[in-house]
Write a structure and sequence with these properties.
Residues 137-200 form the Mechanosensitive ion channel MscS domain. This protein has helices at residues 2-29, 32-69, 81-110, 115-132, 134-148, 217-231, 268-285, and strands at residues 157-160, 163-170, 174-179, 184-188, 195-197, 203-211, 238-248, 255-263. It is an alpha+beta fold. The strands form two sheets. A five-stranded antiparallel β-sheet has the order 4-3-2-1-5. Strands 6-8-7 form a three-stranded antiparallel β-sheet, covered by helices on one side.
Length: 298
C-alpha cells in the first residue's frame, strides 16, 4: 500500500513537471512581437473605424436636420408640424440604425468573426420573426407613406372605411379618430385603404325642402331667394352663394326644392342648419305647409 501511494505521488509530480515544462517552452517560443503588433493593428483599425462611423453618423444626421429645416413654407396648413417632426424622427432613426448595422459588421469583420455564418443563422430567425411581424411592418410602412403624402392631418374631418370623425392622432402604427359620438377609434394603418378627407377643399351644403306640387313653386323660390340675399352677407365662410337647383325627385315619394351652398370646410353643417331653419320659418309665415315625410311601413 505504501509503495502504491508513493508511485502515485511520483507520477503526479512527473505530470505536473511535464505540464510546467511544456508551458515554459510555449512561453519561450511564443512570438510576442507578432502578437503585440497584431493587437496594436487591430486596436488601431477599431479606433479608426469607430471614428469614421462617428463622423458619418454626425454628418448624416446634420444633413437630415438641415434638409428638414430648409423645408419651410409660409403657409404651413398643408405640411403640419407634427407630421414634419414625425418624418424627421423616423428618418434619423432609420439612418442611425443603418449606420449602426454597418458599424457592427465592420467591427466583427476586423475581429475575425465569421459574419457570413452569423447572417445566415440570423436570416433563418428573421424569417420566422418576419412571418409574425408582417402586420406590424405593414402598419409602419403605410403610416410612413400617409405622413409623407400628407393624406390627412390632426384636426381634419375624414372618413376611413366605415369610420368617420376628426383625426385625433397620427402614428406610424395606428391612426386615432374621434367619432361624432365621442368614441375614440384606433385604426391600424394597414387597414386604411380609402381616405375621404372633408377638410381640404370647399364643402357643399345641400338643402332639400319638401314641397306640395299643388302650391306655387315659383313663389317658394322667390321667398328662398329673399332669405339667401339676407343671410349670405352674414357668413364669411360661404365661398359660392346659394344656388336654387329647382324641383328634384329624391326617389322617396316626395318632391323637394334643392338649394346648394359651398362653404369653407367645417362650416357646411352650421350653414346648412341655419339656412334650412330660415327657409322653413319664412315659408310657414307665407302660408306654405311643408308636407311630412312619407312613412314606409313595409
Amino acid at each position: 500500500m505504501y509503495f502504491a501511494q508513493r508511485n502515485f505521488l511520483l507520477a503526479a509530480k512527473g505530470t505536473k513537471f511535464f505540464k510546467l515544462n511544456v508551458f515554459e517552452r510555449y512561453i519561450e517560443n511564443f512570438d510576442w512581437d507578432k502578437a503585440i503588433s497584431s493587437i496594436l493593428q487591430t486596436l488601431g483599425s477599431l479606433i479608426l473605424v469607430s471614428l469614421l462611423f462617428l463622423i458619418l453618423n454626425f454628418v448624416g444626421k446634420k444633413l437630415i436636420r438641415r434638409g428638414f429645416e430648409s423645408h419651410k413654407k409660409p403657409d404651413n396648413s398643408h405640411f403640419a408640424e407634427n407630421r414634419k417632426a414625425t418624418i424627421f424622427t423616423l428618418s434619423q432613426n432609420i439612418f442611425h440604425y443603418a449606420v449602426l448595422f454597418f458599424y457592427i459588421y465592420a467591427i466583427l469583420s476586423i475581429l475575425g468573426v465569421p459574419v457570413g455564418t452569423l447572417i445566415t443563422g440570423a436570416g433563418i430567425m428573421s424569417v420566422a420573426l418576419g412571418l409574425g411581424a408582417q402586420g406590424f411592418v405593414t402598419d409602419i410602412v403605410t403610416g410612413f407613406f400617409i405622413l409623407l403624402e400628407e393624406q390627412f392631418s390632426v384636426g381634419e374631418y375624414v372618413k376611413l372605411g366605415e369610420v368617420s370623425g376628426t383625426i385625433h392622432s397620427i402614428g406610424l402604427r395606428t391612426t386615432q379618430i374621434l367619432g361624432d359620438d365621442g368614441t375614440l377609434h384606433f385604426i391600424p394603418n394597414r387597414s386604411i385603404t380609402i381616405v375621404s378627407n372633408f377638410s381640404r377643399n370647399d364643402m357643399r351644403a345641400l338643402i332639400d325642402i319638401r314641397i306640395d306640387p299643388n302650391k306655387d313653386i315659383k313663389q317658394m323660390e322667390k321667398i328662398i331667394e329673399q332669405i339667401n340675399d339676407k343671410l349670405t352677407p352674414q357668413y364669411d365662410e360661404i365661398t359660392i352663394p346659394p344656388q336654387i337647383l329647382g324641383t328634384v325627385d329624391p326617389g322617396n315619394g316626395t318632391l323637394v326644392l334643392r338649394v346648394t351652398i359651398y362653404t369653407k370646410n367645417g362650416a357646411q353643417g352650421t350653414i346648412q342648419r341655419d339656412f334650412l331653419s330660415a327657409y322653413l320659418e319664412a315659408l310657414s309665415d307665407a302660408g306654405f305647409e311643408i308636407p311630412a315625410p312619407t312613412l314606409n311601413l313595409e
